[in-house]
Design a protein that fits this description.
The chain is mainly alpha-helical and 250 residues long. 82% of the residues lie in helices and 0% in strands.
């Protein structure tokens, strides 16, 4: 996914510069067409799973500190959405255009790959919970760098923080959830974590556009830093005061 995102970002940026934004929906139709073709040709098999059902209320009560981690993830994903959804406005403020946008997104996507491929080796050095804390710090540093970057070139280098930010939280969340939960609850926990990304995107959409129109790009970037910093602090609290003992035992 990250590799495809990188390639498509570069291609799309150049196509928009050469032909205009009308190529974007055509690209989307082509990609979704390929996705549907892949789905229809995939040999799905029916399986019957027997699992212990847990009510949502009981689930969150059972894993109370996980709820704190989810709140932290919402803050971090909101900051991530601020940066990504309004990247063109941010790039424009730094003096770039559509080509620069494509390159920026490609750098971030490629930077994710090493961590995603070799995260199991990183777990040998420290736990998934600690990596979640590291991701919170990396998100904050990335957003701070985006605010301070004087131009497009510096902004390119800021994208390298993606290595320890989005890439880490995406993979570490799966391992963390599996480590702190009973086997019958792990998939539900991962679903909850995936939901935090959607909640973050919704919060970003509600606030971001209005803020840019009213106060400008710098105000948006300051809010982005605030969300990620709060998320990092909450993540530390959720991980360290919660299930670290249980995680280490598993």
């Amino acid at each position: 996914g990250s590799l495809a995102y990188a390639i498509v970002s570069v291609i799309t940026g150049r196509l928009i510069s050469a032909l205009g934004t009308w190529v974007v929906p055509l690209e989307a139709l082509l990609i979704y067409g390929l996705l549907l073709l892949a789905v229809f040709t995939f040999p799905f098999e029916k399986h019957t799973f027997i699992s212990k059902k847990t009510r949502n209320q009981g689930f969150l009560k059972k894993y109370s500190r996980f709820t704190v981690v989810l709140l932290a993830a919402i803050c971090l994903y909101t900051s991530h959405s601020f940066l990504n959804n309004f990247m063109f406005q941010i790039i424009s403020a730094k003096g770039g255009g559509s080509d620069s946008l494509g390159i920026t997104l490609a750098i971030a996507a490629v930077a994710e790959l090493p961590v995603m491929f070799f995260f199991s080796r990183l777990l040998k050095h420290t736990s998934a919970g600690t990596w979640l804390i590291i991701s919170g710090v990396a998100f904050t540093l990335k957003n701070l760098g985006a605010f301070l970057a004087p131009g497009v070139t510096a902004f390119y280098f800021v994208q390298l923080f993606q290595i320890a930010a989005f890439a880490v939280i995406t993979v570490a969340s799966v391992y963390y959830t599996d480590a702190i939960m009973s086997p019958e609850d792990a998939i539900k926990g991962q679903a909850y974590f995936a939901l935090t990304s959607t909640v973050g995107a919704v919060l970003c959409s509600i606030v971001g556009g209005w803020l840019i129109d009213a106060k400008g790009v710098d105000a948006l970037l300051l809010l982005t830093i605030g969300f990620s910093a709060v998320g990092a602090v909450i993540m530390v609290f959720g991980v360290l005061s919660g299930h670290t003992k249980q995680e280490s035992l598993r």
